[in-house]
Design goal:
Order of helices and strands: EEEEEEEEEEE
Distance between the termini: 34 Å
Helix content: under 10%
Strand order of the largest sheet: 1-3-4-5-6-7-8-11
Number of strands: 11
Number of domains: 1
Number of helices: 0
Radius of gyration: 23 Å
Structural class: mainly beta
């Protein structure tokens, strides 16, 4: 009787797997330091890269780099106007727990702690003096601020459609402590925010050194 064919999806239990991920999706922001009269757009895009080393089948530790758009804010008051676009670039130390795993499908919980840097691009008009004969002047500027601390948690699924390649999807909840004060001479920062994001992507697993 010929030997049974090897399972092409079987994991190598003797290897120490290193998984690289790339994800893209959408981000929704809750809370800001702006006046209620401002036109506040809270939906934006998000993308991230991650690397995870699995010490055993139940958990892994890793690093993530993420860039998340935080939306736009538009405001008009007399001759003063502003159109500002915000984003945050974050570095994370993360832990991943697998409460359930099968041959093709894994359910995981992500917990992460990191630092976030806020970025602002703004343009508009400013009235520099109270003299009615002097018109408002236009401006454009960019500013960075931070880092501020961030905390996050996520629930995700990973579907393996080849031995080393998987489709990954996650829903993340994140809180970042960002400044709401004026950034340099540009414009006010966005303030501390809470975001919810949904992303999809691909993961590739390398079999590294033996345990």
């Amino acid at each position: 009787m010929p030997p049974a064919a090897a399972n092409p999806f079987a994991r190598n239990e003797d290897a120490l797997p290193l998984t690289l991920e790339a994800r893209f999706g959408f981000n929704a922001r809750f809370g800001s330091s702006f006046d209620a009269s401002a036109d506040d757009e809270v939906l934006d895009t998000s993308f991230g890269l991650g690397a995870y080393l699995a010490w055993n089948a139940e958990y892994a530790v890793g690093l993530e780099l993420e860039h998340s758009g935080l939306g736009r804010v538009r405001a008009l008051s007399a001759e003063n106007s502003i159109d500002a676009e915000y984003s945050a670039t974050s570095g994370w130390l993360a832990a991943r727990v697998f409460p359930w795993r099968s041959e093709h499908l894994d359910l995981f919980l992500n917990l992460r702690l990191g630092l976030a840097v806020q970025h602002l691009d703004a343009l508009g008009t400013r009235k520099e003096t109270s003299a009615i004969t002097v018109p408002a002047t236009s401006f454009s500027c960019s500013a960075w601020d931070g880092p501020g601390i961030g905390l996050g948690a996520a629930l995700g699924l990973s579907y393996r459609f080849a031995r080393h390649v998987a489709f990954v999807t996650r829903v993340d909840g994140t809180g970042e402590r960002l400044s709401g004060q004026e950034l340099g001479t540009c414009a006010d920062g966005i303030g501390s925010v809470t975001t919810v994001s949904g992303t999809v992507g691909l993961a590739y697993e390398f079999e590294t050194a033996k345990r």
